[in-house]
Amino acid sequence: MYFRRGLWVCCHVVYSIFMAVGNIWTHVNKFVERHIYATTLENEMLYVSKCAEHFNKTPQHIVLLLGNETISYKDLANIILWCVAAGISFVTLYDHDGHLQQNQDELYQAVKTRSKLCVGRIIWGRNKTLNGLGVENGVQNGTKAIAKTRVTVLSLNDSKETFLKVTRSLCYSAKNKEVKSCHISQDVINEMLIEETGLPEPELALYCGEVCCTYGFLPWHIRITEFLRLRSHHNITVREFVRLLQTYGKCEQRFGK
């Protein structure tokens, strides 16, 4: 009994030392990248754009799970603008507590402060515009519009309300004999859920913190999602962001095969 307890304590100490060394290395690496490789936002976006040309694949929908971290609007603004540079069509920021959703204007201002020129390349939320930020893709005045990135902020309430809306809709249709219960399948429900959210299934999710947890993020949306760890979105560097996209590009998805 004492041997097993001693062995457990030794393993715990070794693991704690390993994690501490890893955290120190991460902080040192970030410090070096922020100061030695310091550059302007325009150069960072150009760097991301050039790197994206050589990725094996680029996610069209990326999700950032903030977890229990406090919100850094400046760093979130950087991530959004880097996603724009990488040509990512959908960016979803998920804060299960809803604080970010209640302060979207502050996030918008952070994006606008970082780069006024890129504001027009972003569609904010599920509406066509918010505070004049972005319009739908398409043709304007005979000229093809520049591809835009849709940024959506979600919370735990969105997961619950979406499922409730779909459930009520199916019950109403069945009650009025518009659909037979035998025709209601998982595929039908998935299609309705995706249509209700207005978002495609994400290919990549970045979770912040030590534990890989979805915090209730749209569970029907993550069947084919690749989860990668981001130690923290605070002080994230452009090279760290690019490394995550490179890691995703090398992932082989077998889809259960």
Architecture overview:
The chain is of the alpha/beta class and 257 residues long. Helix content is 47%, strand content 13%. The protein is built from 8 helices and 8 strands; from the N terminus they run ααβαβααββββααββα. It has helices at residues 2-35, 41-52, 73-86, 99-102, 104-114, 156-175, 186-197, 238-250; strands spanning 61-65, 90-94, 122-124, 139-140, 143-144, 149-154, 204-208, 226-230. It has a 6-stranded parallel β-sheet. The chain is globular.
Poorly predicted runs are 127-145
CATH class bucket of the largest domain: Alpha Beta
What is the share of helical residues? Answer: 40-55%
Roughly what fraction of the amino acids lie in strands?
Answer: 5-15%
List the helices and strands and how they pair.
Layout: H1 2-35, H2 41-52, E1 61-65, H3 73-86, E2 90-94, H4 99-102, H5 104-114, E3 122-124, E4 139-140, E5 143-144, E6 149-154, H6 156-175, H7 186-197, E7 204-208, E8 226-230, H8 238-250
Parallel strand pairs: 1-2, 1-7, 2-6, 3-6, 7-8
Antiparallel strand pairs: 4-5
Helix pairs in contact: 2-3, 2-8, 3-5, 6-7
A few lines on this structure:
The chain has 257 residues and is of the alpha/beta class. It has eight helices and eight strands.
